Amino acid sequence: MGTEADQGHLQLAPESFLSTDLINEIQREGIDSGRRTLIRGAIAAATAAIAVPSVRAADDPDIVNLPSWTRSLGKPVVANPYGQPSPFEANIVRRQSPGLTRTDQSSVSFTPLQNLFGMITPSGLHFERHHQGWVDIDPRRHRLMINGLVKTPLVFTMEELLRMPSVSRIHFLECGANTGLEWGNVAVPTVQYTHGMLSASEFTGVPVSLLLERAGIDRQRAKVLLAEGADGSSMTRTINLENALDDALVAYGQNGEMLRPENGYPLRLVVPGVQGVSWVKWLRRLEVGDEPWATKDEAAHYVDMMPDGTHRQYTSIQEAKSVITAPSGGQKLLKHGYYSVTGLAWSGRGTVEKVEVSVDGGRNWRPARVEGPVLPKALTRFQYDWVWQGEETLLQSRVTDSTGYAQPSRAELIGVRGTRSIYHNNAIQTWRVGSDGEVHNVQLG
Ligand SMILES: Nc1nc2c(c(=O)[nH]1)N[C@H]1C(S)=C(S)[C@@H](COP(=O)(O)O)O[C@H]1N2
Ligand SMILES: [Mo]
Description:
By secondary structure, this protein is an alpha+beta fold.
């Protein structure tokens, strides 16, 4: 599990750049999107802080003396043909949870959400979920077959797919089991492990609707698709035709380049808003059918137990959810003063309508600032101005999506679903900031 040292950036939290008067005013009134004057004031104060730094220049050797890198020749252009992160960022990596690793091949690696910015996950930090390991496929030998209830079954080479009209869209990908350990009384220590089976990319590919059209789909009888992967796990999932025709893609591109092997190179299914397991990697076949297949990956697995003992099966959409990524579990606030609380919100049913933040465990909520562009079935970044004076604080975020659905509290979710589930936990997450500045995962209700 992660240690404090794994958590990066927040250790270097900036000094408060707001004036004492402004801090007092923020504490009295708060800052939210309805108080633009105060925000403008804060920006002015930040600018003033740049003009009047808190450390006198003469006292800081790092600004007074020229460092070695300013006095020497840089590295040659060809040193790094494929760019790599700075060596100083070496601890920002995907991590495995010992508790969730069954074998080296059937496992998960989690995205370090606590260290990321904006709405896109760097491809090298995209979480991985493999049922039977990942494979390096020779694209010249990869094929996609479209069969079943179609006039003409078709087989495409990668070259043929790359010649077709493509679209590029930004979407999140969340494993249905994300946040699954929180169903029990296990408060997993860091956001990497609570929410890190979540990533977002710009995907490029051919709309599934176009391929089905080419094959001459039998519109009278067709109801579902079976998607099959080329890895040894025989991953097969039933996809609703509605989702498939709406915005699903047969994707080869991820963040402007070909997919990474771990994420399905050279071809994967992208089913926006739908749980990760349906985004079949190393996609080799789409079969059109008239009823669900009840394959092992949907009959034996990906089923939740309801309080009355019935099964919740063929769940698909990832409901609206949000989480504060910094400050978050395992981090430590080293100084009192201003912090921009930041996190992510998303909904498998549309766009993020609003995000609210509570600093008192859900008694009072104030609007957070939502950063654009706000795209459907994508991650939306939010920020919230907060001044910490050393008091114990319960930080939470809550999203409402474009359908009007609001993210439930843990008590509300468990009230409906019980505690015997694995999948689809979208409850409000609580981080407790102690008076020592340490942040811990706590479960309320
Ligand atoms: N062929 C194949 N596709 C697969 C899987 C797999 O093991 N094999 N895992 C699924 C699961 S459970 C998830 S959550 C996503 C994870 O995608 P990622 O590894 O790109 O994050 O892929 C899905 N597609
Ligand atoms: Mo998954």
